[in-house]
Write a structure and sequence with these properties.
heterodimer, A: about 130 residues, mainly alpha, two-stranded antiparallel sheet, 2 strands, elongated, B: about 140 residues, alpha+beta, three-stranded antiparallel sheet, 2 helices, about 45% helix
Chain lengths: ~130, ~140
């Protein structure tokens, strides 16, 4: 099991986070016409390096100090800042979401490709030919 | 499994957009109707969408968190137009009829917006399906 984990490396978790991100973007697109809906996105970097980010956090020595960075929840969900405000309070911008979804799909495929390569390598080693 | 959730989420959106399109079709069909009384005149129907934020909000027609549901259908509050048409058999004693408050142009725009949103969600499903199939192919590598 350890060998398998080491072979797949970070791509195992990355695939899950990227799958989750696709879901969040699909939620945005589904709610493109919902009044007051706030578009969300996952900060991939912060989720994947969650532990490192905690170490780098700035210490607040006074009550008035802001905590560093956005108050990202554990899932890394953040609200998107829209380019334009809309009449009904909806912050989904279809062009942005479409572009992000396309990019996220490509990212997902990239991770998939890495995984495929790793697995075929492993298979080769096991077969020994 | 997040990829398979996408099908459900986009599915709720397809459902909601079709309901919106249905309302638009009904509005357009009744755009020319008249009535003898003000409160019986046809009023345009508008769908109101609501996001499914948590598990409690989901129900049989929309079982996916993060999807969208039709919270209700409300009447357009604009007053129906009162037009003098004494020859109309529906006219009231003073010879007036009440036309529906539907604006054809607004409805056409609404229909195009609904169709575009529907197409967007179909694309989302297509992409998710391709990614899922590729993920399954990982076993063949």
């Amino acid at each position: 099991m350890n060998l398998l984990n080491r072979t797949l490396g970070i791509h195992d978790q990355a695939l899950q986070v990227k799958g989750r991100r696709l879901e969040v973007l699909a939620q945005n697109i589904a709610n493109a016409d919902t009044p007051s809906y706030k578009a969300r996105d996952i900060d991939f970097k912060s989720v994947l390096s969650g532990t490192q980010a905690q170490e780098l956090a700035i210490t607040a020595t006074r009550g008035q100090h802001f905590s560093s960075g956005e108050a990202a929840s554990e899932s890394g969900l953040l609200y998107r800042v829209p380019f334009n405000t809309s009449f009904d309070g909806n912050t989904v911008e279809m062009s942005v979401e479409q572009a992000q979804y396309g990019k996220a799909a490509a990212d997902y495929q990239a991770t998939l490709q890495f995984l495929e390569n790793r697995i075929s390598g492993l298979r080769k080693a096991l077969r020994g030919d | 499994m997040s990829i398979s959730n996408i099908f459900g989420i986009a599915g709720t959106a397809l459902n909601a957009q079709i309901t919106r399109m249905n309302a638009t079709a009904s509005n357009l069909a009744n755009a020319g109707t008249v009535s003898g009384k003000e409160d019986e005149a046809f009023r345009g129907k508008r769908t109101v969408f609501k996001a499914l934020v948590n598990e409690e909000m989901t129900h049989a027609g929309a079982p996916y968190v993060g999807g969208v549901m039709v919270a209700g259908i409300v009447d357009d509050p604009t007053a129906p137009r009162r037009v003098s048409d004494p020859k109309n058999p529906l006219a009231d004693k003073e010879g007036y009829v009440y036309q529906s408050n539907v604006s054809e142009v607004t409805e056409m725009v609404e229909m195009m917006a609904a169709a575009r949103s529907y197409q967007n969600n179909v694309e989302v499903i297509n992409t998710a399906r391709q990614l899922m199939l590729r993920t399954l192919d990982i076993t063949k590598s």
